[in-house]
Amino acid sequence: MDWFMAAALGAAGGASMEALDFIRAVKWHHQMPWNVQSDTIDPPQRRADVRPGEENLPAPGWKAYWLAAVLRLFVSGTLTGAVAATYPQSTNPLVAFVIGLGALSAVQQATTLAPLMVKSASRAALGGVVDEAQHQTQTLLQGNPQPDPGLSNISLSGPAGSATAGQLQPDTSVVAQQGPTSEGGAA
Fold this sequence. Notes:
With 187 residues, the protein is mainly α. The chain has three helices and two strands, in the order H-H-H-E-E. Helix 1 packs antiparallel against helix 2 (62-86) and helix 1 packs across helix 3. The longest helix has 49 residues, at 93-141. It starts with a helix and ends in a 17-residue tail after the last strand. The model is unreliable at 152-156 (pLDDT under 50).
């Protein structure tokens, strides 16, 4: 199955979820969902996720409702198409439809976890960089002129002792050892 057909089936799964939400809203409120006022959804009560005054908002109208439905179809189709393009051998019509059904929930969960993952990954990466820099500084201060094999072309004294204390000068007596294919090798 190609990714475009899977995306269409995912959008059909998203349309199914949207239809279920529509049916539930009509059965519960006995009117179209875009005509439902926020104070009729639940009895007005103070919840942690509601700011003062939000419990009395006007109905969103049909344009906002249909825009939300179209965006749900877009999210369902996009996620399903991405999964199908990544795993083309294991995507069949049923899998594509089920991914489309749960796409909105999956994206909502991923967006709540993404800042946490980025934060921990950046801390880990930054910690490694800081540790490496501190290690190199300590080995240079201890008098070891070559703390790391990657820094083997740097000497503290330079040619004929021209460097002052604390300045690193490249050692020009070492010839670059990189071949024409960007791989290491003798020049």
